[in-house]
UniProtKB/TrEMBL annotation:
Residues 200-243 are annotated as: Disordered. The keyword Hydrolase applies. It comes from the Bacteria. The keyword Ribosomal protein does not apply. One of its GO terms (molecular function) is hydrolase activity. Residues 3-397 form the Beta-lactamase-related domain. Keywords: Hydrolase. It holds the Pfam family Beta-lactamase. This is Serine hydrolase domain-containing protein. Residues 200-219 have a biased composition (Low complexity).
Length: 402
């Protein structure tokens, strides 16, 4: 199936790794890491994995809670007093983890000079009022999720999220995973190309879209804002995907605003720019190899990062249904995606899988019942947020082989 993605679905460079019952059983890589110079994709080629990051950041928060340093049911303002401004006194850490805080948008444009100043961005959010009453609905906090929870981690631990992840998760377990890439890692990272357009019709990277025959998301007008009807969690459906695509291409829609600020296209190369790779934004900033990202789930499922009872509680769905930002049905535990239109999984994993997708087609998934940890990384991004045929076929092949 990995070969088929190259032969028939326009794969440029990719890797796929699977752990089963704490053992490595699949470790595949191939293709080109940078189409400009033909640099090959190697076993240790890392890449920015976009929102797969959110599961890593959530795990850091849960680790602090497990140690008794943070109560996720308590108001954020208990650890971050400045957050209580603009009527947010009762917004809880759980609201942040489950995308219920009503803060999916940074209202004022973030200047490039501030891209690496996470504390300054967090302060912007602390001064904003929620767009809806927290706890009454959920809407994907595409970028703000990380700045909000990153500040919680910093206030409690004294470390930035990237520093905490390195010290408490990645380094002790020897994972090729960085929330903020060192210069040598950024230098050998795969170069992303293609993919959805962010904000005001701006490309996600500086590369051209996929080759002819791989059209961009249809439609140029804003979505109506009406949530898509529930659908099969293994396939979001064309109508739902098109509504999301239209909304993303409209910089004035809630979706476009949520995903377009900070606007990475202000940097040459977009998400490939060293500033983005090293900034360690806790919503989209992990740079990892497939083996490193799958290894994260391996150790999570095996109980080496969180206690089993902590993980069981964390993957229990807290919200499910129409997502105000994604215009799809989504479901979240404490930071982890659960099967829904926004996280399509094969039938055998619909009750048990958890993890996170990454914009353009990245997949990271754990499954305690089946003893699975898997990750798919690539550099030719698709024109979809929730449905990557290449990733889905690989996940189907794994579940079919059990």
């Amino acid at each position: 199936m990995f070969r088929q993605n190259f032969a028939g679905d326009g794969e440029l460079g990719a890797a796929f790794s699977v752990f089963l019952d704490d053992r490595p059983v699949v470790d595949l890589w191939g293709g080109v890491a940078d189409r400009r110079d033909g640099r090959p994709w190697e076993r240790g080629t890392p890449t920015l994995v976009y929102s797969c990051t959110k599961a890593v950041t959530a795990t850091a928060v849960l680790l602090l809670a497990e140690r008794g340093l943070l109560d996720v049911t308590a108001p954020v303002a208990e650890v971050w007093p400045e957050f209580a401004r603009a009527g947010k006194e009762r917004v809880t850490v759980e609201h942040l983890l489950t995308h219920q805080a009503g803060l999916p948008v940074i209202e004022e444009p973030v200047p490039v000079e501030e891209f690496e100043d996470q504390e300054a961005i967090a302060d912007r959010l602390a001064g904003q009022a929620p767009l809806w009453e927290p706890g009454t609905g959920h809407g994907y906090h595409a970028l703000t999720y990380g700045f909000l929870l990153g500040e919680v981690i910093r206030r409690v631990s004294g470390k930035r999220a990237g520093e905490f992840v390195a010290a408490e998760i990645a380094d002790p377990l020897g994972l090729e995973l960085w929330l903020g890439a060192p210069d040598d890692v950024a230098a050998r990272a795969a170069r992303l190309s293609g993919g959805l357009r962010l904000g005001a019709s701006a490309p996600a990277t500086s590369e051209k879209p996929a080759a002819p025959g791989k059209p961009a998301v249809p439609g140029e007008t804003a979505a109506s804002g009406t949530p898509a009807a529930p659908g099969n969690v293994t396939n979001p459906g064309a109508d739902a995907g098109e509504a999301l695509g239209r909304a993303m291409r409209d910089g004035e829609s809630l979706t476009g605003r949520a995903m377009g600020n900070p606007q990475v296209t202000k940097l040459r190369g977009g998400a490939n720019h060293p500033v983005v790779l090293r900034a360690g934004w806790p919503a989209i900033g992990v740079v990892a190899t497939a083996l490193g990202l799958a290894g994260f789930y391996r150790h999570l499922v095996a109980g080496r990062i969180l206690r089993p009872e902590t993980l069981r509680d964390a993957v229990r769905p807290r919200v499910a249904g129409p997502d105000r930002v994604l215009l799809l049905d989504s479901s979240f535990g404490l930071g982890y995606m659960r099967p829904a239109q926004a996280f399509p999984v094969p039938e055998p994993g619909m009750r048990t899988a958890f993890g996170h997708t990454g914009m353009g087609g990245f997949l990271s998934l754990g499954d305690v019942e089946h003893g699975l940890g898997m990750a798919y990384t690539m550099n030719r991004m698709t024109d979809a947020v929730a449905d990557s045929p290449r990733a889905h076929r690989l996940a189907e092949a794994v579940y079919a082989s059990l």
